[in-house]
Amino acid sequence: MKAFVASFLLFGLIAYCYGVSQPVIKDTKTEGCVGDKCGAHCAWEGAQIFPGEFLNQPGKCRKLFCADNFDIRITPCPPPTAEYEWVDRDETKLYPDCCGVKKDRRPKID
């Protein structure tokens, strides 16, 4: 049952990432120290970010932002459209360079 719920949540997050809205992970507040900085901060999937700060995650091709209410806003790569697709994705680079380059899908008219 736990695996089903986890799979459902993961599928929902992936589907949400490709929607129009920016994905949000609600209420990620935790207390503690991160390096030499202590206090309340956002924590999710190993990321620890203080309110008002961004974290560009190497290898995950996304940028996270910790809001003042401790929600994490995720900025993913843009989804493909009927006109454009993204090619040459490179997970070793930071966001947005990791997303690749936009390639026009529309036929060329001579």
Automatic annotation (TrEMBL):
The keyword Calcium is assigned to this record: no
A GO CC annotation given for this chain: extracellular region
Keywords: Secreted, Signal
InterPro entries, A to Z: SVWC_dom
Keyword Signal: yes
Domain Single residues, every copy: 42-104
Leader peptide range in chain numbering: 1-19
Localisation per UniProt entry: Secreted
Main location group: secreted
Protein's UniProt name: CLUMA_CG018073, isoform A
Organism expressing this protein natively: Clunio marinus
